[in-house]
């Protein structure tokens, strides 16, 4: 895991520094902020943390970006562990796409969905109503503001996963009593009979480029077919994502990481105003 401490000279500079750090996270995965609630850092300090990176990689990328280099170019030029992980993950996705017999979107009622996560962030979204575009030069606060607006409109339910992983998400069309490490309930509306399980990478892609749409080409197997209308959604994370040998082993061996349960509702209740389990 890579972890570097960045210090600003003023509150104004801290906003700039945080924006640059979040631009790096788009490519390395991870998050910007503090390690946890017990992290003893000052008001002018933030951490850049990426589970698939090394300290040396993050520091080299940070120095390049701070000097004005494009974050993507810096990530590729340094060529550290997170770059190679991302490249291998992309190659695996391309191989999976090449094996598909049909180019038509596949929709499902329920079952298991395998979804990549390079930023510790997943979401359930109405791909037909979600307004994702922000601008080519977006900052992290712009995207988080858009998430908030779309949560209030009941177009998206995003949540933090606590780590990067290839997640096994089981979707059920009923609410059960299955428990796990933590759970949260929210409400979402399907405008046209589709919902999509997606990740931060796809949401920021449509945030940056106006011609990009959900689902992204590699997400066809993540579409869910539902009746149009409002849904109660219960999300259960089965295992503790905090790093430890025991937790890592449990996650590695698990047949299910998240349970997403959907139940049609007559009317939605209070929408989310913050993203559950996601560091702010």
Please name the CATH architecture of the largest domain. Answer: Sandwich
CATH superfamily of the largest domain: Competence, DNA-entry nuclease inhibitor, ComJ
Per DSSP, the total helix count is 7
Beta content? 25-35%
Helix amount: 25-40%
**What distance lies between the first and last C-alpha atoms, to the nearest angstrom?**
20 Å
- Using the CA coordinates, give the radius of gyration: 19 Å
Report on the structure:
With 280 residues, the chain is α+β, with helices and mostly antiparallel strands. It has 2 domains: 2-83, Ribosomal Protein S8, Chain: A, domain 1, CATH 3.30.1370; 106-265, Substrate Binding Domain Of DNAk, Chain A, domain 1 (Sandwich). It is built from 7 helices and 13 strands. It has helices spanning 11-28, 55-66, 71-78, 81-99, 140-152, 200-208, 245-253, and strands at residues 2-7, 31-33, 45-50, 107-108, 111-117, 121-125, 156-160, 165-172, 182-190, 194-199, 223-225, 229-237, 258-265. Helix 2 (55-66) crosses helix 3 (71-78). The longest helix has 19 residues, at 81-99.
């Amino acid at each position: 895991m890579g972890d570097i401490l960045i210090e600003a000279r003023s509150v104004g500079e801290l906003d700039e520094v945080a924006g640059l750090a979040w631009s790096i996270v788009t490519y390395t995965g991870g998050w910007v902020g503090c390690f946890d609630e017990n992290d003893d850092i000052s008001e002018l300090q933030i951490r850049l943390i990426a589970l698939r990176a090394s300290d040396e990689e993050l520091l080299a990328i940070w120095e390049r970006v701070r000097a004005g280099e494009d974050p993507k170019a810096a990530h590729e030029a340094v060529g550290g562990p997170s770059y190679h992980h991302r490249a291998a993950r992309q190659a695996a996705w391309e191989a999976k796409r090449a094996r598909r017999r049909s180019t038509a979107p596949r929709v499902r009622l329920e079952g298991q969905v395998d979804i990549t996560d390079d930023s510790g962030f997943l979401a359930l979204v109405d791909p037909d109503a979600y307004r994702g575009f922000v601008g080519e030069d977006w900052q992290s606060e712009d995207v988080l503001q858009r998430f908030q607006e779309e949560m209030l409109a009941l177009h998206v339910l995003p949540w933090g996963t606590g780590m990067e992983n290839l997640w096994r998400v089981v979707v059920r069309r009923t609410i059960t009593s299955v428990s796990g490490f933590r759970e949260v309930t929210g409400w979402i509306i399907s405008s046209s009979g589709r919902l999509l399980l997606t990740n931060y990478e796809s949401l920021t892609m449509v945030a940056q480029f106006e011609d990009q749409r959900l689902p992204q080409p590699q997400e066809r197997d993540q579409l869910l077919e539902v009746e149009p209308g409002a849904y109660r959604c219960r999300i259960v994370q089965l295992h503790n994502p905090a790093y430890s040998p025991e937790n890592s082993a449990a996650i590695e061996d698990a047949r299910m990481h998240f349970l997403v349960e959907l139940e049609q509702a007559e009317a939605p209740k209070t929408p989310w105003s913050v993203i559950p389990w996601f560091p702010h």
